[in-house]
Write a structure and sequence with these properties.
The protein is mainly α. The protein contains eleven helices and no strands. The chain has one domain: Orthogonal Bundle (ABC transporter involved in vitamin B12 uptake, BtuC), CATH 1.10.3470. Helices cover 81% and strands 0% of the residues.
Length: 255
C-alpha cells in the first residue's frame, strides 16, 4: 500500500500536469487512444517473454508518435487518427491474447488497475516519470503555452513546435504505461482529463491552472487509493470515481 500510494501520487501529479494541456488543446481522445494501445503492448510482452511494461511503453510510444505524424503529415484532425489506431490496437491485443498458451496473465489488473500489482519497479518508474515531467515543463512550458493558442506564430518566431509536440506525446505515453498497474489502461484517460477540468473552474491563468491540476490529481489518486485499500475496491475504479464526484461537486458549487 505504501508503494502504491507513493507511485499513485507521483503518477497522479504527472498525468494531471500533462492533462492540463491535453484538455486546453482538445486532445482528450488522444490520451484514451494511447492508453488503450498499450494493451496490445502488454500482450506482446507476455507472448514473447518480455517485461510487459517495457513492451507496452514501446508500443504505446510508437502509436502516440504515429498519431502525431499521421495528423501532421496528412493535415487531418488528431481525433480521426486516434479513431484508426485506437480500435486497431485493442483488436490486435485481443487477437494476440489467444496465442498465449498455458498460463493466462491477469489482464483485468492491467485493464482496471490493481494495488497489489504495484512493486518497487513501478515506484522507480513513477519517480522517473515525475522527474521527466517536471524537466519537460521547466524547459518547454513557454513553448507549450504559446503553441497551444497560436502555433503558426510560434513557428515564425523559431520555436521548435513540432519537437516539443512529439516529446509531449512520448512523455504522455511513458506516464500512461507507468500508471497501468495503478489506474489501469481503460480508466487512465479519466486521470488525464478530470483533474484539469476541475481546476478550470477555479482559474484560467495558465500557470495557476496547471498547478491546480497537479494538486487535484494528487488529491484524487491519494484519496482514491486510500478508499480502495480500506473498502477493498479496485484501485483504478475508485480513483476515477472519486475524481468524478469531485468534478460534480465543483461544478455544482461553481455553477
Amino acid at each position: 500500500m505504501q508503494r502504491a500510494l507513493l507511485a499513485g501520487i507521483l503518477v497522479g501529479i504527472s498525468a494531471s500536469l500533462l492533462g492540463s494541456f491535453i484538455v486546453v488543446r482538445k486532445m482528450s481522445f488522444i490520451g484514451a487512444g494511447i492508453a488503450h494501445s498499450s494493451f496490445a503492448g502488454v500482450v506482446i510482452g507476455f507472448l514473447v517473454g518480455m517485461e510487459p511494461l517495457l513492451s507496452a511503453l514501446i508500443f504505446a510510444a510508437v502509436v502516440g508518435l504515429s498519431i502525431g505524424l499521421f495528423s501532421k503529415k496528412y493535415r487531418i484532425e488528431e481525433e480521426s487518427a486516434v479513431g484508426v489506431f485506437f480500435p486497431f490496437s485493442m483488436a490486435l491485443g485481443v487477437l494476440l491474447l489467444g496465442f498465449i498458451k498455458g498460463y493466462t496473465p491477469n489482464v483485468m489488473g492491467y485493464l482496471f488497475g490493481d494495488i497489489l500489482m504495484v512493486g518497487k519497479q513501478e515506484v522507480a518508474l513513477s519517480i522517473l516519470a515525475f522527474i521527466l515531467t517536471l524537466i519537460f515543463f521547466a524547459l518547454f512550458f513557454r513553448e507549450m503555452v504559446y503553441s497551444t493558442f497560436d502555433e503558426e506564430t510560434c513557428k515564425v518566431m523559431g520555436m521548435k513546435v513540432n519537437l516539443v509536440y512529439y516529446l509531449f506525446l512520448f512523455l504522455t505515453s511513458f506516464v500512461i504505461v507507468v500508471s497501468i498497474k495503478i489506474v489501469g489502461i481503460i480508466l487512465f484517460s479519466g486521470l488525464l482529463v478530470i483533474p484539469p477540468l476541475v481546476s478550470l473552474f477555479f482559474s484560467r491563468d495558465m500557470k495557476i491552472y496547471v498547478i491546480l491540476s497537479a494538486i487535484v490529481g494528487l488529491i484524487s489518486t491519494s484519496f482514491g487509493l486510500i478508499l480502495s485499500y480500506y473498502l477493498n475496491l479496485p484501485s483504478g475504479a475508485t480513483i476515477i470515481t472519486f475524481s468524478f464526484v469531485l468534478l460534480v461537486i465543483t461544478a455544482l458549487i461553481k455553477g
